[in-house]
Amino acid sequence: MPFPTQALAAIQHAGAAIFAADAELKKSVQDYADQVKGAMLQNPFDVGNDTLFGDWKTVARLSQAVAQIEAEFKKIFSAASDLSAGSRTSLSVMPTLIATHPQASDDLNVVKEIEATDAVIKPTRVKRKPLAASKKPKQALKGNTAKVWARLLEILNATAFVKVNQSAVASDIGLAKGSIGASIAKLIRTGHLVAGPTGTFKLAALKAH
Is 32 left (phi over 0), alpha (psi -120 to 50) or beta? Predict the structure, then answer.
């Protein structure tokens, strides 16, 4: 007998939810990476950097696990579709975030537990290179970065470097100090800020007016 259409639809619905979770986790991994790079840029010897790095690795492991689960659901959906020849044409193939997956065996394997060593994260060097005055930032600011930028506009100028008390800025806008560092690093990359010596900054020339 054909595989029940309702069961096939339920499998597809679960797969779509896993697909959405996979996308959100990948975004979270990048957000944590930005925080780690920002913290290392500001103070490589801060003891809090170990905690940020550990959190980044944990989220990366979760993302890896969900990607494996999504691959398993593809195989489950494929096997169920083979049993449901009558309903195969009426349901679309379950979406996947990964373009291609390695060929797996016909048997449905249980997702393997991911050990801490599976997530290998290499330190990334961030160059402090100001954007040329003729270039415009390509990224629209949002979230915490937009809040930090709004506060920095009030205390910085485009003519001289000013030392920024990140703890005070964090307190003013109600954010954690680690988030301030990540936001400042992003503002440097997008050309909004120019970094000077020992924690000083100024507005980029294109923001002077």
Answer: alpha
Beta-carbon count within 10 A of 77 CB = 18
How far apart (Å, rounded) are the C-alpha atoms in residues 71 and 19?
10
pLDDT, tens digit, 9 for 90 and up, residues 3-21: 788 887 888 888 889 988 8
pLDDT > 60? residue 145: yes
User: Regarding beta strands 193-195 and 162-163, do their DSSP bridges make them parallel or antiparallel, or are they unpaired?
Assistant: unpaired
DSSP 64: H
For residues 185 and 37, the answer to whether their CB atoms sit within 8 Å is yes
Q: On the CB side of 8, how many CA atoms lie within 13 Å of its CA?
A: 21
Tell me the chain's radius of gyration from C-alpha atoms: 23
> What is the value of pTM for the model shown?
0.37
Question: Could you read off the pLDDT of 38-88 as tens digits, one per residue?
Answer: 888 888 787 777 887 888 889 899 989 988 898 887 888 888 777 776 544
Which helix (H) or strand (E) segment holds residue 201: the answer is strand 200-203
Contacts of 167 (CB under 8 A, 6+ apart): 177
The total of other beta-carbon atoms located within 10 Å of residue 196's CB is: 15
